[in-house]
Design a protein that fits this description.
Radius of gyration: 43 Å
Shape: flat
Structural class: alpha+beta
Number of helices: 14
CATH architecture of the domain at 381-590: 2-Layer Sandwich
Helix content: 40-55%
CATH class of the domain at 381-590: Alpha Beta
CATH superfamily of the domain at 381-590: Histidine kinase-like ATPase, C-terminal domain
């Protein structure tokens, strides 16, 4: 009878799980696959268009920058009066040594400050001579081959800057004319290093069969990446369509998609040719993969739903049978408990687990609290031997050079400091007590440094009665002397401010006008403070920033603690925040283990 009931119950649970998982797996898979197959082609086509349009905009911008740099180079030489006068005077004087020197110096300076050029050639019309300047030196020779004729331009086109591809390489050319009658005086040609332009074209090409061309303003090819394709006729048709129809940033022609862009000055243009079969090849695997994955997911969903429903339901049934007999007090399994269903068994006994976990957490909290109290007391026992050594030296020096009064004051301050530091009975003190301890420390420091520093206190009266862990102020002020004032010249200034906020928080600010620190050092220090493990106390020669921060976080909120602000040569500001507690509000805290 019991076996029959269990069988029916098992069948019901497994069936429900199977049907639910089958519906969750198959229905979304079928819908998503169908929708993806419908939209993939169009979306990928649009995506390719957008990517290539953005690429052409980027390429046009980079080419414009390249073109502008060439123009600026030409204009800087053209507007150089000594350079222009040397060009205009060439051939008119019998002795052209002075003009030659000016031209040579100008070309050398241009090559030295710009890596775009490998050679500068100046073709002088007056005597058909050419000055060639490389980084290795300058030569003067006659233009016997008439190489300057390769740079000829149609009369209606601008000649301030244009590009020409010759058998010797790619040149940027600028015609120098007289101002009065616009007669041609010389042609200035810069042989270009094409690496930057080549990189621009290579980045625009995204697949093997794409071709990218760089054209000058005469629609001549000056650079290309075309894998050996001969696109002269196709480019001619494309350029004609661009000039006549102005059809936009891209268009289709002869089963190809053509994208084009131009620099701002119209000196250089880019044409990119993408065969449509490239788009089809890119889309086809995605469409087929989507359909295949959809079909595979449907079959996988059916199989996994059956398997998972079996493997999930069986452990649940076994778990319910075992859990309903567990007693948390003894951790023994007992039988005979009767419940309405498996879920109710789990709910009731999980409640027992939670209660047991709460008890364990409470015990662990007490243990950790005791450990933290021990850490705090150990921290308070730290005394800076270096400071005591300096103070004792000072006492000896004053006793020899001055009188009893100074020795008495310093010895009394040091005695008070030691009694205060070694009083382990009270882990928490009032802000007023901490300020008294700080006064003793500052008295000794004033004697050490002969009143080289001044201090300004701005303490809100309500704060003086608030409790705080002992030795929070003096270590921070000591930090100012050790790291802020050690390399600072002039009068040392120290500001201490404390006040309460509306959200019952104590804010303390300690600021100096010392040497400060760089932004990198500041960021590293704040990151180190931020990453200080909650409840951890750092061992050190002295109680530093990290330990003070740890003590605040131990005794108050983990979000409380120290933040440092600083600028190089402008000083450092240290701010710390913690919960405000008065003596009458903290009997439980002070009476525990602090």
């Amino acid at each position: 009878m019991e076996s029959s009931k269990k069988s029916k119950r098992t069948l019901s649970i497994r069936t429900k799980i199977f049907l639910f998982m089958l519906a969750v797996s198959i229905i979304p898979t079928i819908l998503i696959t169908a929708l993806a197959a419908y939209n993939t082609y169009d979306s990928l086509y649009r995506q390719l268009i957008v990517i290539n349009k953005d690429g052409m905009l980027w390429g046009s911008d980079r080419v414009s920058q390249f073109s502008d740099e060439l123009k600026n180079t030409f204009y800087s030489m053209e507007f150089d009066k000594s350079f222009r006068n040397a060009v205009l005077k060439w051939g008119k004087d019998n002795d052209s040594y002075e003009e030659n020197a000016v031209l040579r110096n100008t070309f050398n300076a241009t090559l030295n400050k710009n890596n775009l050029f490998s050679l500068i050639e100046l073709y002088l019309i007056s005597d058909k001579s050419v000055i060639k300047t490389k980084r290795a030196g300058t030569t003067l020779q006659s233009d016997e081959e008439g190489f300057s004729n390769t740079f000829n331009r149609p009369a209606h086109m601008q000649t301030n800057m244009y590009l020409k591809l010759t058998g010797k390489g790619l040149y940027a050319v600028h015609n120098i004319n007289t101002f009065e009658d616009r007669n041609l005086v010389a042609k200035l040609a810069l042989q270009l290093r094409t690496g930057d332009l080549q990189k621009i074209l290579e980045k625009l090409k995204t697949s093997q069969d794409e071709r990218v061309y760089l054209l000058n303003d005469q629609n001549e090819i000056v650079m290309s990446i075309n894998n050996g394709y001969d696109d002269k006729e196709f480019l001619s048709k494309s350029i004609k369509l661009i000039n006549e129809e102005s059809s936009g940033e891209y268009f289709s022609i002869d089963n190809n998609i053509v994208f084009y862009g131009q620099d701002k000055g119209g000196k250089l243009g880019i044409i990119k040719i993408i065969p449509r079969n490239e788009i089809v090849k890119a889309i086809r695997p995605t469409v087929f993969a989507g359909i295949f994955m959809g079909i595979a997911c449907v079959f996988a969903a059916i199989m996994l739903s059956a398997l998972i429903s079996f493997y999930i339901s069986s452990p649940i049934l076994k778990l319910a049978d075992k859990v309903k007999n567990i007693q948390m007090a003894t951790l023994e399994i007992q039988t005979g408990e009767d419940t309405r269903n498996e879920i109710s068994v789990l709910e009731n006994h999980i409640a027992l687990f939670v209660q047991r976990i709460k008890d364990l957490i409470h015990q662990e909290y007490i243990i950790k609290l005791q450990a933290k109290s021990a850490q705090i007391k150990a921290l308070q026992a730290q005394i800076n031997p270096h400071f005591l050594h300096n103070t004792l030296q000072l006492i000896g020096s004053i006793s020899l050079s001055k009188g009893v009064k100074e020795v008495y004051n310093i010895a009394g301050a040091l005695s008070s400091m030691m009694r205060y530091s070694m009083d382990f009975e009270n882990g928490f003190v009032t802000m007023g007590s901490e300020l008294n301890h700080l006064d003793n420390y500052l008295l000794i420091q004033k004697e050490r440094f002969y009143d080289k520093f001044s201090i300004e206190l701005d303490i809100q009266e309500e704060v003086k009665d608030c409790l705080m862990p002992k030795l929070l102020l003096q270590p921070i002020v000591e930090n100012c002397f050790q790291h802020g004032f050690d390399r600072s010249t002039g009068e040392w200034k120290l500001w201490i401010k404390a006040y309460l906020t509306e959200d019952k928080k104590v804010h303390i600010i300690v600021q100096d006008n010392g040497s400060g620190m760089s932004q990198d050092q500041l960021a590293a220090l704040n990151e180190k403070i931020k990453d200080t493990a909650y409840g951890s106390i750092k061992s050190s020669r002295h109680i530093g920033l990290l330990n003070v921060n740890s003590r605040i976080r131990l005794n108050f909120s983990e979000n409380d603690g120290i933040t440092v602000y600083s600028k190089k040569d402008e000083g450092t500001r240290i701010e710390y925040i913690f919960d405000a507690q008065r003596v009458e509000e903290a009997n439980g805290l002070s009476g525990s283990d602090h």
